[in-house]
Amino acid sequence: MKENLYFYYTNDLHSNFEQWPRVSGFIKEETGKRQERNENYWLVDIGDHMDRVHPISEAFMGKANVALMNDLHYDVATIGNNEGITLSHEDLFHLYDDAEYQVVCTNLHSLRKENPVWLERNVIIKSNSGVKIGLLGLTAPFNDYYELLDWHISSEFEALDHYVEQLKKEADIIVLLSHLGITEDQEIARRYPDIDLIIGGHTHHLLRTGESVNQTLITAAGKHCYFVGEVILTWDHLEKRLVDKQAYAVDITNYPKDLKTEQGLQMLQDEADKLLGDPIVQINRPIEVKWFADTMIMQELTNTLLSYTNANCAMLNAGLLLDQFSAGSVTYRDVHRICPHPINPVVVELAGDELIEVIRASFTKDFTELKLKGFGFRGEVLGRMMFAGINVETGHHKNGEEYVKKVTCNDGNEIDRDSVYQVATADTFTFGRLLPEIARSETKKYFLPEFIRDLLVETLKRVYG
């Protein structure tokens, strides 16, 4: 006898709640079919369901995301870096207290006395006919951040070496929920042939019909839940093994929305507006924001960053602020709307010549007009760089492009190319190749759990209060 075992999964929603009613409608319809046929199915999430870019997630510190997953009767979830490193230790410790599903993260460890009660190293689920499925969960090891929040992410291979061997003795099928990214998933599949299925995320890759590496099926459904994943595992009871594995990512972009979910989200939004509605300052005239020009608010925010970090100099891109502040009462809701990014302050050490190169690169058209997506940035373009603690003298080429003529310290002395400077900026630039000198810096000090918008609040109070 052969039996189909169904998994439905979501990954990397990033609090894209506009899409969530479609996810809800699709999941309810598909699982309803399985219930009618008395078929075994499970619903799992691969992390980054929460993103503090959305006011609902901000107001409830992720607990509204957990409630939404409860409403859809999720069975198991693992955590992503947005759950892991954008919340304080206490907020993550209690994030899943009310979860009606199991949370598995095999490589997450608290550096305080105890782990949260919800944290499972592995989970075993059982089909109606007795087939045992062992699930592991892994999240990306951003320990420069985690350890500042009193957590540690151990090596995925160290975790797998122990728990795959254990699950081989206890389960018929092994499934990994991986918030590590496609490259790591492929390497795990090469190293651990006993893992039957890897459901992935983190790098927002879309595998419409899965990918087989050795004996392992890998799948993932992109980002923002425009796709929902389905996996069908076929178990042969006579042979006592899997005889078929299929994976699909289903496009639900135009799927009908579930009305009840829409209504629930509106109620959450109304409550979030109230929670974020406390006034910060009262202003008599609008505060101007421009992406490609110097403004008072961006200069003062950069000054706040310099003072907060006690660095030698500071630099922030104007694209961090998405809109102007209107005259009247300015609330936390306004600050979140205008600076929604889950971006932390960071101080990096740069040699003088590296600092000058970074400043030069920040004035190029390629940099200021870059429509960045990712690395925590949730804006439109990077915009003009603002500086504090140093003076940047610029000129213009015949074609109108701005260039750096001279960089001096506040005391009037030019930057010493051989000296080392502590430079405060947004942690966005420590990733990728936006400003390579910053990304390559061997000394990086991150400031957590504060976001740049927390410094914006202090700036508004100091300057306009």
Automatic annotation (TrEMBL):
Tell me if Hydrolase is a UniProt keyword of this record.
yes
SUPFAM superfamilies on file = 5'-nucleotidase (syn. UDP-sugar hydrolase), C-terminal domain (SSF55816), Metallo-dependent phosphatases (SSF56300)
Annotated Calcineurin-like phosphoesterase domain ranges read 8-205
- Keyword field: Hydrolase, Nucleotide-binding, Signal
Record GO biological process: nucleotide catabolic process
Show the GO MF annotations: hydrolase activity; nucleotide binding
Q: Which InterPro entries match?
A: 5'-Nucleotdase_C (IPR008334), 5'-Nucleotdase_C_sf (IPR036907), 5_nucleotidase/apyrase (IPR006179), Calcineurin-like_PHP (IPR004843), Metallo-depent_PP-like (IPR029052), Pesterase_YunD (IPR011240)
Gene3D superfamilies, sorted: 3.60.21.10, 5'-Nucleotidase, C-terminal domain
Q: Which Pfam families does the annotation name?
A: 5_nucleotid_C (PF02872), Metallophos (PF00149)
Q: Which residues form a coiled coil?
A: none
5'-Nucleotidase C-terminal domain residues are 290-428
Q: Which family does it belong to?
A: Belongs to the 5'-nucleotidase family.
Protein name, per record: Bifunctional metallophosphatase/5'-nucleotidase
Species of the source = Oceanobacillus piezotolerans
- Give the classification, highest ranks: Bacteria, Bacillati, Bacillota, Bacilli, Bacillales
